[in-house]
Request: fold
Amino acid sequence: MFRLRYHYSIVSLIAVIIAAVTLSSYYRHTTIEQLIELEERNYLILTQTLSNTLLPRYRDFLLEAETLPRPQLVRHALSKQLHGDVEKIVQHLPVLKIKIFDTNGKILFSTDPDQTGIVKPADYPGSVVARTGEVISEISKRDIFRKIDGSDAHDRSVLSSYLPVYGGPDNKVTGVFEIYSDITATLIEIKRKQLQVSGLVLLIFGLLYAVLYIFVTHAERILTRKHIQATELSSRLGRLLDKSSNEIYVFDADSLRFTHVNQGGRDNLGYGVKELCEMTALDLKPEISRDEFLSYIEPLRKGECDQVNFKTVHRRKDGSTYPVEVLLQYSPAEEPPVYVAMILDVTEKAKADDRLNYLAYYDDLTGLPNRYLFADRLQQALKEADRHEQLVAVLFIDLDQFKDINDSLGHDAGDSLLQEAAERLRDCTRASDTVARWGGDEFSVVLQDIQTIDNINIVADKIVQSFSSPFHIKNKTLFITASIGIILYPLDDNNVESLLKNADTAMYHAKENGRNNYQYYNHEMTVRLEQRLKLENELRQALAGNEFVLFYQPQIDIKKDTVVGLEALIRWQHPQQGLIAPDRFISAAEETGLIVPIGEWVLREACKQNQALQAFGLPPTKVSVNLSPRQLREPNLVQHVEQALQEAGLEPALLDLEITESMLMIDVERVTRALKELSAIGVTISVDDFGTGYSSLAYLKQFPITTLKIDRSFIRDIPESKDDMSITIAIINMAKGLGIKTVAEGVEIEAQLEFLKQHKCNLMQGYYFSKPIAFDEIVTLLQTEQADQELSTIKAAI
Reply:
């Protein structure tokens, strides 16, 4: 039972003492500050009086005193005369001593002749401060002090003040007065009143303490009675709950601390009664955070429902865990209110669910992924290939002569053969590849991170060779071969269904070619080649016939709410097909080498149109142009860029060249040299599609990069994808650490905008702001923005 009176007495006593000491100290402090402030005002008046009365008569003497040696100055007749005049003026004031300093810290006069003529500014720091025009004072205790009349004062509290003296035509500080006064009696009076204040405070708080003590005593009696009642109730409830076969927990609604756990719960958890009474409901739930648990119980507390059900995992004392289903109810009528939870151990049910889930995605016989999981893995592999510009190969494998073996030796032998075949396929592939049982005697494989066709051939040869070795099943030696069909992404097809269908077709071609071999899908390769040749010819005609046009997508500085850049994007105005997007012809241009002259045209046109924007009276705006890998490898790249800038008359700082992250790693030494040469002429460098490559941070630091463009694949699923959000935050923070700006591509919804603003992404572009638009539309957009800004400026001025 909590000892309320005892703790109240201790805490209150300490609080009273602290309050008394604090208030009395505060009183003494503020009184002394007021005293110093009053004395400083009086001394300013006294200083003015002394200046007006004495300085006109002794000015020449004081000027001469600045250069006189100390012995001569002490004996000077006017020094003694000045001493007498000062003494007359302050004879009725509590002034003990006066000094006059010049602006160099020399004591020109002191009522204590032993100090006249001393030049030690370090010993009198207050005089140094006063020469700046500030009044400064301090209180000190002196055992003996020589007064103006030459007598000694003993055991005095002294207030010394340094006060500036102004003069001359420009009213500058011409000297400093130091005035000492006796405040011993004042401080004694302050201390006496401080003791009175302390006594008064102690009296008031003592009376308050006594009144509150009466209430606390009454409250403690009530709490004691309630505690006895609760203990009796808990004991009766415990006896009833222990008879239940289910686990039942009762825990406090505020602290979540267990008040009772029945025998069934204690047996399963392995804790004793005392141990559980020191634990909370959260201690048993390693997979649920406090906030998540509170979200379950909050509707109960608000009366929005009678009970809640949820699934979680409980942890036993020995560290083992088991799945449970929880039925939770709130009992506000109890004192204090409690939650009652009925716990059902669903270990066996969870095992059955896991088994069903396993069978939904895996083949029970071989342990390989089934066709559903294989299709999902293939979809993921295609996405990764798009990001990293790599190939994916799909292999369809059929076991030749399997049906004959299965029919003649039985299903058990057939199953054993399939299991052995699955093991051989695993051995022929990497851990990053996916091997699946498609059904019957058919298997499928996804090969990722493929750089060349040779990589695929090596795997296919290994599979064919592996299956040429005999199988030993049920004391029999069996020979079986494999027919393999292969299809490539993105060369052959670009979707899962087509890839699977055409890989299967290629596998049948392998069977038709004698089995025990592999064939690449090539049914449409001839058609595709003809189309590619036609496209190449049309691209050459388009380049010669000036059929390409530039569209621009604005880059927005959200902080300033203004367009600060434009990304130039090429389009093909085809005579028959109309406007063609770049994804339909850029890859062909890259393969044929036409990307170089096309890229040079884009560079020249973007520079020329950017300069034209300024001719419309628009402010200079940076334009971004994408460089292809082939352009970056061109030895005359820098000369082409300089020529485009000179022809257009465009400042180099208004041109930004974008390269992809993967391009950085093609030939680090050559790329570094090229980028540094480009940076040297004044253009800026941005890394496009950042996050999709594998560039090293160490390499990234050595490139002259000013901007990282976060790939749209990371922005697209924000805010649903926590992984993409984490990656985006990491890129922004890394760029900040390197002093590099960030541009977010593909911003399409407000949630993405707010997320990027929160994490201080510098610039953004995407359909949320504007789709890519033609040059004349860009002019209109920028003119409208300029007019809005001018109108805002006028309104602000009004």
